[in-house]
Structure to design on (479 residues):
């Protein structure tokens, strides 16, 4: 199969994988939100930082190194596999020992056993990380879809059944364990290729030297993003963390699906043309223009329909999440810009610069957070929003040099795109303030009418003022 054909197939199957798997996950999130209390989600959010750090350390960025390599041998895959297994075991022991300290920090004794059980996921995912890297490098996303869908269903059924039986927060833990275990088991039982138990010291050095910088960057980013949950959990309550977490999860759902689908395909594609600046810039600009147009439209639409959406989907008990959700949606508009800019640094092999950029961003972000803490949770959320927008273009400042597309050009292009998306949002917001839709006394109908109004207004604006978008979309679909 030619590379272009493989890329086309990759887009189709990656979209199928993301849409089906995440649709199921989103559905179960709705069910569990109605069965469980906000405090249950808050308890899970409190240990998220330990789980995220453990997962980053377990992989050590070596899976990304496999994808970036032009060619990998069985010795490459075997070396990374053995390394992941060893590090995962060490990380699990460390997390097991520090779990009581986490429980004492939050004054939540249940977190000790909760964290110890959840951390089993580190050991499980070590058995599937290399296979996933190989499939991604070869653009074999159909295989991922075939194996991930049933494992997602198994985890979903497990979580919902336990929630119905009154297991509370434990149902969330077992959902993740069942999902990851079944996926790894299916991979090892039904797929012919398996990593061999081969370790090559020289290959390890090459993968580790590239990967550890990405790991450090990931750890810095993980700690920074979870600082908000840590501080809210420490200063306020598990329920407050639950409201913030639900808002953050919902705003990330649509934008992550869009970003992940394209990133899983465009990262290896960008890597294949990394030595041709002109081609790389053209591919980057086309992808960014398309994704930003979609992300701006989705996020602004969600801001408008936020209250009826939470009321309908999660229930009245989750309405305190709405203000946090609307603020975070503003930040999500610009998420693709930051992500694609960092991908340029990756394909150029500049993991050292990647790390430096992350350190600079986090120093700025932590300073902003510290200033916002005395003013309450909403001020902290605004701090997260503003700094994330700034970070997107800070990434662009560094990556733009490699593709000769500076941050001023990025600002100009994105302003044009976002402005077109804001206009119909303002119209819908005005109609909402005038109670134009509420006379139906149906939140679902209000959501449908607002979204329909937005789309009717947005498409003609795109057609007249940004016709290149349709050309880019047509080109991407054809390729």
């Amino acid at each position: 199969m030619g590379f272009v054909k493989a890329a086309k197939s990759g887009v189709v199957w990656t979209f199928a994988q993301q849409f089906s798997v995440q649709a199921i996950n989103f559905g179960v999130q709705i069910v569990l939100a109605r069965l469980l209390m906000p405090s249950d989600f808050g308890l899970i959010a409190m240990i998220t930082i330990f789980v995220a750090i453990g997962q980053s350390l377990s992989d050590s960025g070596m899976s990304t190194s496999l994808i970036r390599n032009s060619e990998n041998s069985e010795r490459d895959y075997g070396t990374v596999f053995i390394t992941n297994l060893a590090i995962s075991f060490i990380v699990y022991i460390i997390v097991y020992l520090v779990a009581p300290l986490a429980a004492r920090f939050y004054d939540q004794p249940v977190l000790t056993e909760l964290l110890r059980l959840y951390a089993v996921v580190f050991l499980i995912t070590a058995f599937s990380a290399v296979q996933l890297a190989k499939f991604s490098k070869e653009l074999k996303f159909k295989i991922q879809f075939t194996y991930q869908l049933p494992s997602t269903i198994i985890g979903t059924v497990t979580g919902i059944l336990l929630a119905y039986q009154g297991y509370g927060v434990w149902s969330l833990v077992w959902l993740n364990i069942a999902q990851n275990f079944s996926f790894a088991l299916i991979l090892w039982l039904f797929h012919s290729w398996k990593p061999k138990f081969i370790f090559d010291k020289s290959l390890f050095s090459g993968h580790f030297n590239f990967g550890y910088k990405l790991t450090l960057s990931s750890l810095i980013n993980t700690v920074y993003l979870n600082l908000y949950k840590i501080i809210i959990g420490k200063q306020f309550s598990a329920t407050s963390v639950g409201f913030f977490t639900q808002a953050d999860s919902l705003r990330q759902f649509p934008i992550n699906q869009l970003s992940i689908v394209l990133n899983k395909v465009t990262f290896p594609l960008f890597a294949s043309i990394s030595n041709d600046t002109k081609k790389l810039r053209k591919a980057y600009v086309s992808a960014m223009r398309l994704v930003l147009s979609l992300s701006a439209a989705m996020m602004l639409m969600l801001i408008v329909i936020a209250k009826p959406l939470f009321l309908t989907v999660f229930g009245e008990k989750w309405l305190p999440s709405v203000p946090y959700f609307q603020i975070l949606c503003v930040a999500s508009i610009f998420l693709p810009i930051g992500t694609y800019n960092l991908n340029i640094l990756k394909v150029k092999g500049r993991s050292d610069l990647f790390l430096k950029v992350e350190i600079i961003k986090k120093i700025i972000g932590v300073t902003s957070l510290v200033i916002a803490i005395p003013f309450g949770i909403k001020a902290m959320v605004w701090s997260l929003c503003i700094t994330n927008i700034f970070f997107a273009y800070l990434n662009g400042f560094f990556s733009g040099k490699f593709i000769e597309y500076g941050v001023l050009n990025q600002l100009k292009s994105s302003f044009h795109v976002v402005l077109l998306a804001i206009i119909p949002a303002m119209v819908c917001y005005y109609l909402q303030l005038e109670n134009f839709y509420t006379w139906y006394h149906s939140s679902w109908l209000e959501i449908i009418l607002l979204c329909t109004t937005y789309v009717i207004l947005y498409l003609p604006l795109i057609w007249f003022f940004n016709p290149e978008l349709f050309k880019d979309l047509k080109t991407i679909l054809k390729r």
In short: The chain has two domains: 1-235, 237-479. Residues 135 and 455 are 37 Å apart (CA to CA). The longest helix spans residues 201-235. Residues 1-10 have pLDDT under 50 and may be disordered.
